[in-house]
Amino acid sequence: MVSTECDLAVIGGGPAGSSAALYGARAGLKTVIFEPGLPGGQIAQTDIVDNYPGLPDISGFELGSALYQHALDAGVDQVQHFVDALHRKPDGSFLLNIGSDEVSARAIVCALGAKARKAGFTGEDTFTGRGVSYCATCDGMFYRGKLVYVIGGGKAACDEALFLSRIASRVIMLVRRDQFRAPKGIVNKIQATANIDVRFNTLVDSLAGDALPTTIVLKNVLTQQLTEERHNPGSFGVFVFTGFDPVAGLVNEYVDRADDGGVITKEDMSTKTPGLFCAGDMRVKPLRQVVTAVSDGAIAATSAYNYLALI
């Protein structure tokens, strides 16, 4: 354990957490960042980030790592472990349970992000990791020269479909609605890509097989008609990109949450609990992007500094 006490504990090492840790350290706060996994959060699993201002066509891994390392270079301590539980003490500070250890923090910035939302079809859990994936960058290479189905009609689904089109022989996009929910520019790219086919008003009803899936059943949401498509084992994959659910269970009792599960914060990232700030994709916001996560983190850490200056 790096330290048993700190001014600011930052939970999560994605763009929001890295930014918060950097701003906390630069404000002179003794700052510790807790990140058990790959630095950079979800963005580290993205092939190319083409909309971060000033850094066109940078890889997600490179960007996420750079953000995290910048914080460490500023003097932030890191703990590569989950925060198992968080409690607010009578004096208003917080106690974090880290395995068998404890860390006391005067303020918290929680930036746990969001996790991939499952599509909910029969067989999804059974074949996760064996035909069903939620990350094209992670698993796309397993399907080089093969067929892939992409579930979703938003920007993330379109981004991943374009990425997979450079690897797979054919990409079939299954869009539940009658149109995309993505910006026109990326939709134009989808329509111009020869090996991407789009099926609107369609979802996956079930996936079946033995060790690997061999049968996918598609459902037309308008007619309810089921269509069964059979393939050889290992010859196709299903990639799910239907959105993300905010990860906020750690702080659930200390925050208010919206219908979509996002944490409700003020503009300064504060929650209903003094000293607890939330940033990034876990909070309610109109746009979940790296640039907004970085902004959230900077605001949260600055707000934490101002809060600590008054107590």
From TrEMBL:
Has keyword Oxidoreductase?
Answer: yes
Reaction equation(s) it catalyzes: [thioredoxin]-dithiol + NADP(+) = [thioredoxin]-disulfide + NADPH + H(+)
UniProt keywords (A-Z) are:
Flavoprotein, Oxidoreductase
Where does the record place the FAD/NAD(P)-binding domain? 7-297
Q: Which InterPro entries does the annotation name?
A: FAD/NAD-bd_sf, FAD/NAD-binding_dom, Ferredoxin-NADP_redctase_2
Q: Which Gene3D superfamilies match?
A: FAD/NAD(P)-binding domain (3.50.50.60)
GO-annotated molecular function: thioredoxin-disulfide reductase (NADPH) activity
Report whether Flavoprotein shows up as a keyword of the record. Answer: yes
Pfam families in alphabetical order? Pyr_redox_2
Q: Which domain of life is it from?
A: Bacteria
Q: What is this protein called?
A: FAD-dependent oxidoreductase
